[in-house]
Amino acid sequence: MIFCKSMVPYIYSKLQWVLLCCFLFLVHGENIKRSDFPDEFLFGVATSAYQIEGAYLEDGKSLNNWDVFSLSPGNIQNGDDGYVAEDHYHQYLKDIEIIQSLGVDAYRFSMSWSRILPRGRFGEVNPDGILFYNKILDELILRGIKPFVTIYHFDFPQELQDRYGSWLNPLMQEDYVHYAETCFKNFGDRVKHWITINEPNLFSQMAYQIAKYPPARCSQPFGDCPAGNSDIEPLIVMHNMLLAHGKTVNLYRRYYQHEQSGSLGIVLDCQMYEPLTDNVLDQEAAKRIMAFYIAWALDPLTFGDYPSEMRQYLGNQLPQFSSDERKFIRNSIDFIGVNHYATSYAKDCVHSSCSATANRSIKGFVDTSTERDGVQIGEPTGIGSLRVVSRGIGEMVEYLKTRYDNMPMFITENGYSDPQLEGEVEDAIQDFKRIEFHKMYMSSLAQAIRDGANVKGYFLWTLMDDFEWIHGYSIKFGLYYIDRQTLERTPKLSAKWYQDFLKNNTQTPTIRITESVQYTANS
Ligand code: FCB
C-alpha cells in the first residue's frame, strides 16, 4: 500500500470511527462468517445413538446399561428414559433431510453397541442393526454428507455389565475390539472418520466416582453407594478404555487401513481451567487439573504413558502399561476430538484448605469453582457447572496445540443448553442466546486457527433436543425443538441462523450474552 504523510490528518479524522467499529466487533463477536474459517474446514452437527434413537427393544436390540439404569426411580430427572427418545430409529430419513437442509458438510453420530451385537462377543451380529446403520450411511453419502462415526458413546449391552462388570474388567477390551471390528467390516468402506470412544474421562468419573452414570459406583466422601471405590476405579476404567482403543487402532491400521483409508481419533470432554488467582500455586493447580483430566487420556495415546504429574501424586495407584502396551498405544490417534462447553477456575489444595472431595490424590489436590470473589466466570446455562466463557475454546485448542505438537483436532461437540424455560414452545424456539453462544465460541475458535491451531472442523451439539442423560428431556441443546407428545420437529431460530451462517449470510437477528458479568452466587 502506498502511504504518504498527507494521509495522516485524514486517517486521524476517521480514527474514532475505526476504533468504534473495532470495539463493536470485539464486543459482539457478531460478524463471524464461514469465510473466517479455512476453505476445507468442515461444519457439522452431532448426536449420539442412545440420545435420539428410541426403539429400545425393537428389531433385535438388547437392553443396554442406560435402559436398565433408567428403570430405577431417581436416576433420571422426571423419571425420563430413552425408550422412545426422538424416535430417530423410525424417523431417520426425515432427520437426514433436516441435516441436509442445514447445509452441513458432516454429521457425527454414534452406533448402538446393543443394536449391532446384542450380546457382545457372546452372541451373533444382529442383521437388523447392520441394516439400520447401512441405511443411514448410504443416505448420508448420497446427499454428500461426510459421516463421522463414534463407535461407543456411553451405551453398551447390559450383559457385559452383568457377566463381568464391564469396564472394570480387562475382558471389556476384547468385547470392545470385537464390536469395533464388526463396525469396520460392515461400514468401513464408507466411513473415513472413526471415533473410538466418547469422553472416557467424563464417563469414568461420572460412572465410577460420583455415581451419576451407570453402573453408578462410588465411595465416601464422593457419595454413598453400595459398592465402588471413587479413588481407584476411575483409573482402572480409563486404563481399560485406553487399551481397548489402542488394540482397536492397531487392528484397523494392520488389516483395514490399506483398503478403507480412514482415520481414527478419540473424543475427550475438554473442559478448560483457569487459575482462581494469580498466585503461582493456583497456576500450578490449573496446569495439574488439565493433566489429570485431559492428558490423562491423551498422553498415553501420543507418548505411551500417563503424565508425570499423575504419577507424582498417585504413585502406584495409577495403573502401569507394560512395555508392549506402551508401544501399541503410542501414536494411536490420528486426530483429537474436542468436546468443549465451558471453563472453570482451579484452586490449589496442597497448601490451602479445600472440600473433602477435592483434597485428594485422585483429584490432583485441585478444587474447582465457577466463581471468583462473588463474580461468576460466565453466564449460567441449563447445566449448573457449564458457564458461557467463549475464550475457553481458544485456550483449549491452544493447550492441545502446544502439548500435542499441533495434531489435527476437530471440535466434536460445542453447544448451549437453555436455562430453565418458562415451558412455552415459543421460548424454546426463540433461542437468541444459543445463536449468540455459537457466534462467540466460533469467533474465539477462528482466532485460534488464525494463530496456527490445526483445527479441521466444528460439530454443533446438537441437531435436536434429546435425551440428555441424567437430565432426561429437561435440558435442551437442540437446533430443533421436539414436541414430546407428537415428536414433531420444529426448527428453532438457531437452525435458521446455522443455515444462513453456512451460506455465509450473517443477517439473523441476535441479542447479547454477557460474559464475566456480576452474578451473585445464588442467582
Ligand atoms: C457430552 C456428551 C453428549 C451430550 C453433551 C451435552 O458430555 O458427550 O452426549 O450429552 O455432553
TrEMBL record:
Superkingdom per UniProt: Eukaryota
SUPFAM superfamilies associated with the record: (Trans)glycosidases (SSF51445)
Stored PROSITE patterns: GLYCOSYL_HYDROL_F1_2 (PS00653)
Keywords: Glycosidase, Hydrolase, Signal
Residues annotated as signal peptide: 1-29
A GO MF term: beta-glucosidase activity
Biological process per Gene Ontology, one example term: carbohydrate metabolic process
Family label: Belongs to the glycosyl hydrolase 1 family.
Official protein name in the record: Beta glucosidase 5
